[in-house]
Amino acid sequence: FYLCSHYGSLGTSKPTHYYVLWDEHEFTSDQLQKLIFDLCFTFARCTKPVSLVPPVYYADLVAYRGRMFQEVVMELQPPPSVASSSSSRASSSSSTLPSTSFDERFYKLHPELENIMFFV
């Protein structure tokens, strides 16, 4: 179904297309559309409804922020050296891997930010 839940500032509203993949609660189509429409008013960044249901919007924000952190980690990691032969390539690739785990290299949050939605 299509749902246009947000206000278009300059006539720029466009509906969002929703697909129901699995409905464990056996909602009717009207109940499901009303639930999604009502959820569009619960986005924490603004007081107006948004075009995409907030749990999906938050997941997109988390993925975007995670990609930014991962790019920083990858920039700090030294590039693997290119060897001329395949046998030396196999032995040198294991020696160029960082000795720290991914968790140790990944961006650490301040303890006060760990259990809140800081990305909002």
From TrEMBL:
Pfam families: Piwi. GO terms for molecular function: nucleic acid binding. This is Piwi domain-containing protein. Residues 82-100 have a biased composition (Low complexity). The lineage of its organism: Eukaryota, Viridiplantae, Streptophyta, Embryophyta, Tracheophyta. Signal peptide: none annotated. It comes from the Eukaryota. Residues 1-71 form the Piwi domain. Residues 79-100 are annotated as: Disordered.
